[in-house]
Amino acid sequence: MSQRINRRTALVHCAQLASAGAAGSLLPHTVAGTQTSASMSVTVLLNEPTGWIKPALYGQFTEHIGGVVYDGIWVGPNSKVPNIDGIRRALVEHVRRLGKIVIRWPGGCFADAYDWRDGSGPREKRPRRFGRWEEVTESNQFGTHEFIKFCRLCGAEPYLAGNVGTGTPEQFQRWVEYCNAPAGATSLADERVANGDRDPFRVHYWGVGNESWGCGGKFTPEDYCTQYRRFTEWLPGYGVPLYLIASGPNGNDLDWTRRFFKKWKDYARAPLSGWAAHYYCGTTGHALKFTLDQWYEMLEKANRMERLIVDQWAAMGEFDRAHKVKLLIDEWGCWHPKGTELNPHHLFEQKSCLRDALCAALTLDTFNRHAEKIDMANVAQLVNNIHTLFHADGDKFVATPNFYVFEMYRPHQDTRGVRMDVQAPAIKFHAGREQQIFRVAGSASRADRKLTVTLVHTHASEPAEVSFSIRGGSADHVQQAVLTHKTLSAHNTFENPNEVVPQTSSTPHRGATFTCVLPPASVSRLDIVLK
Ligand code: AHR
User: Which of 80, 119, 173, 389 is the most buried (most CB within 10 A)?
Assistant: First the structure.
């Protein structure tokens, strides 16, 4: 691990916790944040490069579920909601701010009951079905062409998830052909042209099933591997190099991984580029109501992503020593109980507050630190759902604090990670038993003279005064952007969209060492121009 928690200096901040409000009392906790505490340091080691941070690590997930597609993305061309050919304009404008990311579609569980043909051809003629999640009509107004258009408008790359649960290899292979074959080359390519798109969609990322251990067919790993081989056998890319993704484990299930890979090896290694794990860190308390212990417990659960990556990577390496297959986390996020939906039709919609923003930030830092192992990650889900970046309801639209974290972290994209050492006392909390969470963690990356450092400070009530060093270089100028709030459950609403937004300021910091202050419960980005 590039980041260590110094356990020798781990302290119990009982007095500090008490000053933030007794652990166990319900939020909103208003935090004072006036004291500084024990010595903490962050050292960036410029001469120790790590992995390349691909924009795909900042990917999104969009499923036909609740209000994600209908209302969130698709409002229809005749809507009064400002749109571009039926696609919500405000969403496009915001997603463009996330960089050249990847967007996964159409599920999720929905993908394993989806026939792509239902979503092509003239919209007025498309069949209406029942959705996968609820017995409500799926109009199929948003299909492959609309999704590709959405991606193109956003400057994002598409990732299509194929149906292994109820579909056939033939259906899957024909979807690839429909998307990628050049005009005139095959009948399906001509059908695509007739449906409005002469240029091939050139889809690179293809998922072969979703959660095949669960809603995607309840396979054993061996049976799924057999299906995987059938779906990927002699699959032309039509000039597009295909990146094929298998359905990986539920959380850190090593048995699923080992059994799949054992069979995969015995099967002379069907073409496989990525192994996609899903990790939902769940909830503690409720989306907007939680105790101080639950604040820390939530962050600790999100931080288990680190263990998952390390363990899964090691298990994959037992069968694929050269690590040709990379890890993906194509669904992740907090998942809170019902009760904060903005619209009752938006299944699994939840309000995201400052706490979710810290979970997002520490997860993105984890991906950055392990960038050599991970090819893609997709937060679940983009709009009106779990760990969402946006809420949209009719003509109303608002970005959550999660969006601002993704935007803050964008400068890491397409840069080289550099190792960072963090020394800070852990914070203890109670969740059934005494546990602990890091106080400060983060990641660093460099592009020429630009050094980007992001830091999550978990302490709920006290700032951290951090001694910051750059080994192998020196700062000419430092700017600090901070996302925080005095109330831990603070969130943005349609009425008050700027409650939790980052503030950026120039600092007097110069040279190879300086002291910087991280406010309590905060995400910071330091933009350092090197001399
Ligand atoms: O994101 C919601 C659902 O969670 C997805 O459809 C499924 O893959 C996961 O279980």
Answer: 389
